[in-house]
Amino acid sequence: MQFPTDSGFTFVLFGGTGDLSMRKILPALYEAHRSGMLAESGKIVGVARQEENRAQYIDWVDTHVKPYAAKNGLDEAAWTSFLARIDYVKLDLSRAEDFATLREAIAPLPGIRVFYLATGPSLFVPICQALASVGLNSGARIVLEKPLGYDLKSSNAINDAVGEIFAEEQIYRIDHYLGKEPVQNLLALRFGNALFEPLWRREWVESIQITIAEELGVEARGNFYDNTGALRDMVQNHLLQLLSIVAMEPPHSMDSDSVRDEKLRVLRALKPLDADDINKVAVRGQYHAGVSRGQAVPAYATEPGVKPDSRTETFVALKVEIENWRWAGVPFFLRTGKRLADRVAEIVVNFRPVPHSALGPSALRAGKNRLVIRLQPNETIRLYCLAKQPGEGMNLASVYLDLAFDRFFREGQMEAYQRLLLDVIHGRLALFVRRDEQEAAWKWVEPILNEWATTPRQPKPYAAGSWGPAASSAMLAQHGTCWLEEEN
Ligand code: BG6
Hints:
The protein is an alpha/beta fold.
């Protein structure tokens, strides 16, 4: 889709030489530029302390960002014109006068202003206050990266302070999972087809699984991760956001508040957990040494930056219930972890078996209807049905109807960050997390955080390269089901 190219913008990137800018934000802006989706007059202003001037910053971008931008081949002419869009302001956060310099530097630039804070959360409030002190908050949009706080209290403190400077409509809280193409497709599938809606409820759905599994360990982020853990890093945000999209009621329209109101209702309907429940419905694990893709890999506790006696979870599996008419009694199994057997993110909707099998026992053995929405890798949606095997007798087998996006759509998929950055520039808030959603998610996870912080129980060990602790499979077995990869 081409957007109007006449709406100018100034995109100011704090943390302009950071990891996120290098790997995600600048490559996404380059791709938007290359495909003609950015206004001609739009400018990008890197803000950092490290580089002295524009020439040095451009050098840094050319050296560090180019390899990520070139992932699918680089268009040299587009890269050169992309660099021409970039300005730089050297800024030390502790120096008020540097913000005045920033104001002067961007004063002549046209269009709306976006301030993207690709920095640690402890800098969000000081940066917003400093922007306000030079009047740069007025009419601007502010983008906040996760993690937004450490718990409900700290996230409220950030939101309160930022909320004094920017109105909620100016605040774009990023959850990059919401920008992924298949998540958009899930909305299209649910609300663009008459077929699924009647089945999308407790009468027909037996259980739902949402998995975000990673093969990688904590890489160079040991220190950050050890103070964070999988519950804060992945569940409070990405997994609960996916859950709310799967379970939400059809919104009145796709405008931002209609969608976010419905997601919020789901988050508020999550069955609260007390300490007794938590031991039954929440599994926390930590990886030990193991083998990943044929390579021996070390235990989490020996990774750089991690305390040797760390009790931080690198794996979480949860059984979640939604207390409303549509979903009462349907278990939602959520799972995420580092150093698992595969890199996969998927949503699995298991439908109930037929009420009576006229086709005999082979029909029951052959499986059930199931919808598998694969977010990554290889985005697909598969609807599993039973069909007769050719030949004698009535033997059924599970087959699937396949929506492989690359076969149907010639245009390439858009990366999550590209979509979200364009949404910020164009003022579309639907795919950003509203404050009340974030609060509801923190409220729900907080009893688990508290229980895990105080219990003498250790996280359950699992071998790196496996699918997590045995307790995760056992939890599903109690409900007569298993994770998708355990089928057959
Ligand atoms: C981030 C987490 O939000 O999401 C990381 O902080 C995680 O720990 C990443 O690796 C996963 O994102 P994706 O898009 O690679 O699945």
